[in-house]
Amino acid sequence: MGSTTTKKGASGSTGKSNLPPARLKLAAAMRQLLRTKDFNSITTAEISRTAGANEALIYRYFKDKRGLLHQVLYDYLLEFHSEIQNEFKAAPGALDKLRCLVRAHIRMYDSNRVFAKILLLEVRNYPGYFESATYRLVKNYGKMVTEIVREGVASGEIRGDIPPFRIRDLILGGIEHFCISAVIFSHEISVAATAGQLCDLLFKGIEAVPKTGRGV
Amino acid sequence: MGSTTTKKGASGSTGKSNLPPARLKLAAAMRQLLRTKDFNSITTAEISRTAGANEALIYRYFKDKRGLLHQVLYDYLLEFHSEIQNEFKAAPGALDKLRCLVRAHIRMYDSNRVFAKILLLEVRNYPGYFESATYRLVKNYGKMVTEIVREGVASGEIRGDIPPFRIRDLILGGIEHFCISAVIFSHEISVAATAGQLCDLLFKGIEAVPKTGRGV
DNA sequence: CGATACATGTAAGTAATACTTACATGCGGT
DNA sequence: ACCGCATGTAAGTATTACTTACATGTATCG
Prior knowledge:
Two copies of one chain form a homodimer.
Chain A: H1 21-34, H2 44-51, H3 56-61, H4 65-87, H5 94-111, H6 113-122, H7 133-155, H8 164-184, H9 191-204
Helix pairs in contact in A: 1-2, 1-4, 4-5, 4-7, 5-6, 5-7, 5-8, 5-9, 6-8, 7-8, 8-9
Chain A binds a DNA duplex through residues 5, 20-22, 43-45, 53-60, 64-65.
């Protein structure tokens, strides 16, 4: 994600090492403030005060206030990515993988409300977001989901008469809407139950199964 | 929606009549500006200039800049509501109604990009939105969808082993994600095809149907 | 060892902008 | 003719994101 100055190692992300302390403190301050306030009502003065760093450092280490927001989201996304890769270890089929992914995604939203708030509420409205490296990560995640769907189509687990990206959209849209109300109003989420119901609906559809003689 | 002064008739909405001309012009200006710019980068000066009205009038007729945005969305929602009621005339079953609703909803997003942008991108990030009369309309729409689902469960068309509000969430989440990319990047939407695919997925699920001897 | 280059940190300043306030104007009703 | 009230106007203010010019510490290199 390089800020202004591209250092040698550390590839730009906030990997804790190398990066100037003020930079890390500013990101931490942004995360903390987002727990209780929305992005627009957080002032740069507040951020620097909370971080115990000078206001101008925001603009040295990030493009602007939104750049800082994007960086915070970026770090969360890296964490999420690696977490989800691990989960896949023991998932043989595409549907298993999707079940896994849905659960991990919802769990991430539940246990990390700031992450959920940023992704679901705070970035979409700013056009520049869609040019950012952060958005590129999000897009990659989407591609990964599409890839799993494609895999499922190939193996015969998932229907092939609908474009895979549509199926991906339904999955991601479902996840989002199953969580967004809880995120906005700070309600709890029962991860297992929510993920289970969502997968059930996604896989089987909403139609009642007609009373066919014997199942399958 | 009453602004500051609650007039006798007109129930507050921008029903064209009674309301001061400047108020209408400001709303129209906001709509026009939103066609090309995001809410945050539209200034009050720009709004008033475009409307040919004085800047202070924004604050006389609306609570603030966001109040104006909410009013614009409110008007769109009224239009959408009445449009959707009409469509229902010739929809006997719950699934027919849902099919109808999905198509109407997507068509509305397609033919009214400003409406879609506001609802999908611009309001969610502001906490005050969820206290607004505008949000109450949106919530009512959600309740209506849930009601249709409940009707479908009662008639045996829709499965009853999942809470209706979950089914609603999947439907609305699906609609949103099927459209949001086109809204953000100003691509066209093929309403019929998109709605068809979405309903198909929603109703039947994403699993490939196993080769059961004879269908139904 | 001293000097230089550079990253990090600081403080004061500026332009833009959402919102306010106090004032003018037109008009309908009595 | 006059009063009340809704509508419209102009100038002002406080906030805030962002800038710029400067200070400090530290590691590198002659």
